[in-house]
């Protein structure tokens, strides 16, 4: 018959005509074929490695709260041992000698215990961070309750009659100063050995304080005035103690988002191929590889950080035990809701990254831009409004800023890929119509936005209004860079960029030479400058100059003969 084709069988169901065209039924791939088998093995190994790394106990890192507390408490205890040793040798009061001996032996034993922890963790007894930095209250002076060197010298030179009073008046605030530190580590650490020591301090030292106050009264002396130091508000950077700790946790969990990426890439790629072969969808033009990698890289970075932070959210001490909702008598805790959200965000961004790599489509690129944008907006809102289950807005931290920077990159690139086909034709991707100067202006605008994002946490700490202003500038400059890449040569867009960046430069110069304008606790004070501030202003100046150059080109178009409007006038 005329319509018959000679076909060859692959042995697995699909048939191809000899001229290479598809038959009515597209082929199915064998499960054992190398690409599929390799992808499945990769997924399996990723999951196994993640589970193994999660089950292996991890020692506290150099920058962890446990190590900071241990090192600070060693120093704190060492001074108590020194004072107790002086009092025991110089006092003539048996009760003071018993007290001093008890403090000396107890705290020296605890010093040995804490040094043993550091040995087991393979860390030095001292570190480079300032004292109490692990609490969010770094100090370069004395820790809470610590005596000054002059007070220690006076204790050494005191007569036997004077040493009792001096010792008690120094040891009472010394014990009081240890209590907020113990409370802070209980909020930040789940390690049982550290928690036991902190609880022991919380139970024993108030009793000793009361006993020492009673000794002063028995000697006819006034008790030490004042209340124990109030527990300091523990400041965590985001949901983990510091950036290296987050990176370490993220590295442990990295195989999970990579496994999700590989699985989704495999499934979506196969679905896309089947749709194209069956004629159910049009084959889309494939974007340039560099742009696809940038979009997928920003999303998978966000996925890795969200999944890496999720365990800390499940165990966040500020959320643990706080009920969020009760369903059929089952209480769902706030920490669970927050942890689940971070897991969902990580999985969603990883799948979107896979879709960008496997299924080139304007809808996929739009989804990537929308997901990244929504995560950025939600993050910004929660800096101002308390999240569900909490009473205060979340702190601005470096880890969150890096996550938002990755999402900003993904949003920008996805937006460009989403609008690019409509500007250069649907049939194929090619170089955009915009010139290199507009690429540079967009890049400088995004650099300035990232600099404002980088310094924003410090300004939130000074006053919420300063933080909001920097957040606004970050969003404006970032979105402006996206707008330049999407809409290109638009006169109004040029004017907005020139005016906006010029206004930011004027405010910067005013704050650093005349005084901080408008409102806030530092209004009128001249702000100190730094290299990073100059970097932001340089980027903004570059945007202004580049756009003014393009404005001139816009006003003076080049004709077919190479002459400009001014040449013809």
Question: Would you write up a description of this structure?
Answer:
With 569 residues, the chain is mostly helical. Helices cover 66% and strands 3% of the residues. It folds into four domains: 1-30, no CATH class; 38-60 and 243-433, no CATH class; 65-218, Ferritin; 435-569, no CATH class. The protein contains 17 helices and four strands. A two-stranded antiparallel ribbon has the order 1-2. Strands 3-4 form a two-stranded antiparallel ribbon. The radius of gyration is 32 Å and the shape is elongated. The protein starts with 6 loop residues before the first strand and ends with a helix.
Secondary-structure map:
Layout: E1 7-9, E2 15-17, H1 34-55, H2 65-90, H3 94-120, H4 149-157, H5 160-188, H6 192-218, H7 243-253, H8 255-277, H9 289-314, E3 323-327, E4 330-333, H10 334-358, H11 362-382, H12 398-424, H13 436-462, H14 464-487, H15 491-513, H16 531-555, H17 565-568
Helix pairs in contact: 1-8, 2-3, 2-5, 4-5, 5-6, 7-9, 8-9, 8-10, 9-10, 9-12, 10-11, 11-12, 12-13, 12-14, 13-14, 13-16, 14-15, 15-16
């Amino acid at each position: 018959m005329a319509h018959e084709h000679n076909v060859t069988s692959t042995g697995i169901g699909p048939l191809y005509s000899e001229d290479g065209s598809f038959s009515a039924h597209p082929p199915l791939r064998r499960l054992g074929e190398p690409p599929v088998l390799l992808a499945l093995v990769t997924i399996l190994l990723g999951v196994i490695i993640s589970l193994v790394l999660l089950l292996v106990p991890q020692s506290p890192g150099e920058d962890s709260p446990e190590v900071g507390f241990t090192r600070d408490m060693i120093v704190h205890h060492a001074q108590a041992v020194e004072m107790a040793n002086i009092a025991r040798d110089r006092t003539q009061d048996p009760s003071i000698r018993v007290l001093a001996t008890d403090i000396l032996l107890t705290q020296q034993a605890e010093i040995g215990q804490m040094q043993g922890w550091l040995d087991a963790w393979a860390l030095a007894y001292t570190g480079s961070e300032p004292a109490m930095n692990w609490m969010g209250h770094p100090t370069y002076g004395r820790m809470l309750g610590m005596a000054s060197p002059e007070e220690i010298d006076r204790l050494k030179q005191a007569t036997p009659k004077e040493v009792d009073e001096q010792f008690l008046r120094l040891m009472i605030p010394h014990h009081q100063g240890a209590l907020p530190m113990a409370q802070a580590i209980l909020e930040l650490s789940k390690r049982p050995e550290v928690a036991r020591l902190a609880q022991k301090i919380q139970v024993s030292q108030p009793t000793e304080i009361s006993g020492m106050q009673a000794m002063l009264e028995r000697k006819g002396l006034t008790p030490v005035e004042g209340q124990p130091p109030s527990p300091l508000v523990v400041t965590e950077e985001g949901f983990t103690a510091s950036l290296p700790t987050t990176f370490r946790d993220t590295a442990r969990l990295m195989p999970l988002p990579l496994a999700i990426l590989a699985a989704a890439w495999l499934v979506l790629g196969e679905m896309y191929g089947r749709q194209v072969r069956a004629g159910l969808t049009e084959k889309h033009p494939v974007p340039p590889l560099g742009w696809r990698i940038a979009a997928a890289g920003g999303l998978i970075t966000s996925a890795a950080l969200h999944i890496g932070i999720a365990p800390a959210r499940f165990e966040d001490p500020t959320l643990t035990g706080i009920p969020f909702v009760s369903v059929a008598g089952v209480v769902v805790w706030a920490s669970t809701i927050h942890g689940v959200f971070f897991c969902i965000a990580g999985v969603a961004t990883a799948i979107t990254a896979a879709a960008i790599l496997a299924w080139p489509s304007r809808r996929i690129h739009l989804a990537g831009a929308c997901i990244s944008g929504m995560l950025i907006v939600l993050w910004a809102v929660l800096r101002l409004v308390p999240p569900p289950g909490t009473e205060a807005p979340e702190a601005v931290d470096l880890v969150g800023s890096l996550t938002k920077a990755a999402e900003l990159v993904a949003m920008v690139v996805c937006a460009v890929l989403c609008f690019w086909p409509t500007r250069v034709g649907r049939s194929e991707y090619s170089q955009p119509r915009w010139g290199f100067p507009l690429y540079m202006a967009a890049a400088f605008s995004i650099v300035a936005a990232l600099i404002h994002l980088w310094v924003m946490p410090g300004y939130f700490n000074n006053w919420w209004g300063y933080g909001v202003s920097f957040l606004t500038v970050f969003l404006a400059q970032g979105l402006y860079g996206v707008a330049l890449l999407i809409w290109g040569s638009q006169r109004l867009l040029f004017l907005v960029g020139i005016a906006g960046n010029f206004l930011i430069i004027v405010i910067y110069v005013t704050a650093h030479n005349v005084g901080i304008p408008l409102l806030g606790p530092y209004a009128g004070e001249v702000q100190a400058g730094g290299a990073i501030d100059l970097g932001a202003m340089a980027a903004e100046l570059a945007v202004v100059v580049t756009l003014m150059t393009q404005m001139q080109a816009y006003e003076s178009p080049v004709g077919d003969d190479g002459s400009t409007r001014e040449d013809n006038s």
